[in-house]
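User: What would this chain look like folded?
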Amino acid sequence: MNDYIWVKTSVIALLAGTVPALADPGSNGNDTFGHMMWGGAHGWWGGLGMILFWGLIIAVAVFVFRMLTSNRIGETRDAMKILKERYARGEIDEEEFLRRKQQLQG
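Assistant: Here's the prediction, encoded as structure tokens.
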């Protein structure tokens, strides 16, 4: 659920950041295209497309990075299972196994 909220907040922030970019650049007085694509044939759609494209690229990169570095559900090992594995490998004796087992079971 936290990932959903994080992605939702990022998208809202990205869209809110585009508002100044969508403002009318006005005329610069010499009938040129104005600022980048705003006054050209693409109008403000070209600029919006560019902003959305780079926003999508950044969002995907962040999403992939967070997924690769986060703890994955289901990969946590149970303490009792680890204790049994250590006992089976001979790392601990029966007395220590029983003592730790009782501690884990409460």
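DSSP finds four helices and no strands in the chain. If you want, I can go into more detail on any region.
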